[in-house]
Amino acid sequence: MTKFHEFPQDFKGKVAIITGASSGIGQAVAEAIANYGAHTIFISRSGAEAITSQLNAAGKSALSLPCDVTDETQVKQAIASVFERYGRIDILINNAAINQIAKIEDISLEDWNRVIATNLTSLFLCCKYAVPIMKQQRSGNIINVSSIAGHFRSKISGIHYVASKAGVVGFTRQLAYELAPFQINVNAICPSQTYTPMLAATLPPEAEQKLIDSIPLGRIASMEEQVNVILFLASHLSSYMTGAIVDVNGGQF
Ligand SMILES: NC(=O)c1ccc[n+]([C@@H]2O[C@H](COP(=O)([O-])OP(=O)(O)OC[C@H]3O[C@@H](n4cnc5c(N)ncnc54)[C@H](O)[C@@H]3O)[C@@H](O)[C@H]2O)c1
Predict the structure, then answer these.
(1) Which terminus has fewer CB within 10 Å in the chain: N or C?
(2) Which family does it belong to (predicted)?
């Protein structure tokens, strides 16, 4: 299991949902939050049994909930089952996404719709069903994972990915405004290239050094460097932040 630094936090007893938690940044942040004492729900298409079993064996509270975040019926059921089991939702981290490298003329309408559905419509669905619960509590914390691609542009990804991540930025600012009267904070992070399975699948090895040379900090991010900022946004340390779009990109603009 991934090791994490000490982090000032107040996650004990909170109920946290993380989408795309069977891999990469999503799994790492879910592991961290579970380790800090939250009831942590790992949402992914195929389930995350291996990691949740390990966490539960170590005395943590982790639940693997298989769910395709593009499917409204599945999302509605997943959120309802979390509410039924734990009676509240404190933290929702919308992290699941897919990527594809292709030029516009090679992207089919099916590809476009799949990427938009996974990377943007899924946020609408998860928030649509989690927000009424948070409104009733008059508290909640939503963190959306966008990308440097959505805040600026991409050196790697297709235009559908970039458009979906730009959509996440607008979605975050508007939802933050809509939910502020209910003391529900909504923020986004915009990671740049980070060593995860997604990057391994999209960055050709011969392009890695050129990319590193173009990053002011001179290196590709580790997963922990993204996780730490998500943890900050999910904790009380960021309680006066809402509608913020936080760049975690090694100084790239
Ligand atoms: N790795 C990078 O370089 C990088 C850079 C910028 C932004 N990001 C963003 O960070 C987030 C995490 O990326 P990662 O690199 O860890 O990716 P990853 O591919 O390792 O993990 C993505 C997760 O999303 C899940 N997922 C995909 N479609 C789903 C669906 N329909 N329903 C449920 N789960 C689904 C996958 O199963 C997987 O668990 C994504 O939003 C990504 O766009 C990553």
Answers:
(1) C
(2) Belongs to the short-chain dehydrogenases/reductases (SDR) family.
